[in-house]
Amino acid sequence: MLGAIGLDERQESAYRALVALGAAEVTDLAHRLALPERETERALRRLESQGLAAQSSARTGRWVAAPPGVALGALLTQQRHELEQAELAAALLAEEYRAEAAEAAVHDLVEVVTGASAVTHRFLQLQLGATEEVCALVTGKPIAVSGLENDAEEQAAGRGVRYRVVIEREVLSLPTGLMELSAALGREELIRVADRVPTKLVVADRSLAMVPLTGRGVEPAAIVVHASGLLESLMGLFESVWRDALPLRLGAGAQITEDEAPGPDAVDLEILSLLLAGMTDASVAKQLDLGLRTVQRRVKGLMELSGVSTRLQLGWHAYEKGWVARR
């Protein structure tokens, strides 16, 4: 637990033992820790340099612990200061980067990463750098990185980063597929399944994306796309696949199940039919004995379900999906 202030396991054990004893000889402390006396003395010297222990002035060879509240408090204050300085430096570098990127050449918006190690490192880096959301399409045949298995994902999710992932149905039949999916669902990640996804894709915070370039039998490579029209297109591709995929749930007995495809209920269909017949929201509300806000809320929900932004698009989508029929 004290690794954050620079202590290793032996040094922390020595400090904890010294705090419990108040003061101790090197021989007694070494026996308590089951360590050689030389290793114990080395740990004490390290604690002394950190201000956590000191040699007794009353008795040679005897060590005393510094009060944790004072000694650890000082170290934590120093760590916070150093972290604040690092955050400030990162913010300044980010600002400088954005200033340069504002007039970046077209070729600077896309970088090519070659080699399995480099691709894996960049993939993990995208997730570790995310602060809000990671969106991903996962195929059943990963090239350089396995679909859901990496520590970076667990760390990012632990920091509150939201995950939305669409997997190919083939992932469910992989040897570790169900185990990884169960762990991801346990972290409250949102996962949907589709028969096929067009490509493997990772998008971090809608500002950086990664797409593989090569298939099996060729040295793995990928492109990293920075904020641009191409990135917006990739995000649009993800949203399209996400909208049509089926949600996965973790049910009783840790069983993974697929939800039914979302769709409008009977009231939604009545509202749609009347709107397409040319009636206003107020007229529909009166006809169905509903509140005006209820009608408007349901229409908004249908637009979100359809992934459209206008009522004209909603009508077209309703016909395409067979929610309503042309008479």
Biggest β-sheet, characterized? 9 strands, mixed
Topology, number of strands = 12
CATH topology of the largest domain: Endonuclease, Chain A
CATH class term of the largest domain: Alpha Beta
Helix content: 40-55%
CATH hierarchy: architecture of the largest domain: 2-Layer Sandwich
What is the CA–CA distance across the termini? 70 Å
Provide the domain count: 3
Cα-based radius of gyration, to the nearest Å: 29 Å
| Mean pLDDT across residues | 78
Shape: elongated
Structural class: alpha+beta
**In percent terms, what proportion of residues is strand?**
15-25%
Order of helices and strands: HEHHEEHEHEHEHEEEEHEEHHHH
Strand order of the largest sheet: 4-10-9-8-5-6-7-11-12
Helical segment count: 12
Name of the CATH homologous superfamily of the largest domain: Endonuclease Chain A
Question: Regions with pLDDT < 50 over 5+ consecutive residues?
Answer: none
Describe the 3D structure:
- This protein is an alpha+beta fold and 327 residues long.
- It has three domains: 1-103, Winged helix-like DNA-binding domain superfamily/Winged helix DNA-binding domain (Arc Repressor Mutant, subunit A); 107-258, Endonuclease Chain A (Endonuclease, Chain A); 266-321, Arc Repressor Mutant, subunit A (Orthogonal Bundle).
- The chain is built from twelve helices and twelve strands.
- It has helices at 9-21, 26-33, 37-49, 68-101, 116-129, 151-158, 177-186, 229-244, 266-276, 281-288, 292-306, 311-321, and strands at 23-25, 53-55, 62-65, 110-114, 133-138, 162-168, 190-194, 201-204, 208-212, 221-226, 246-250, 256-258.
- The longest helix has 34 residues, at 68-101.
- It is elongated, with a radius of gyration of 29 Å.
- The protein starts with 8 loop residues before the first helix and ends in a 6-residue tail after the last helix.
